[in-house]
Fold:
Amino acid sequence: MNIHKNARLTDTARSRGVCEAVAEPACAKGFRVAAGVCPRMMRKWVECFKIEL
Structure:
């Protein structure tokens, strides 16, 4: 996998965060803050995940 140098998370960590956000939305903020991801980006990841299902 080719991750650019400014990427916050790899695909594995991103998918773990999305799964947590979908299963338990209250826990999503904790993951997001710990990972240093903005709310908008987290919403975009969750929306993409829901479209793929």
Remarks:
- The first helix runs from residue 11 to 23.
- The chain has a mean pLDDT of 83.
- Helices lie at 11-23, 25-35, 39-52.
- The chain has one domain: 11-52.
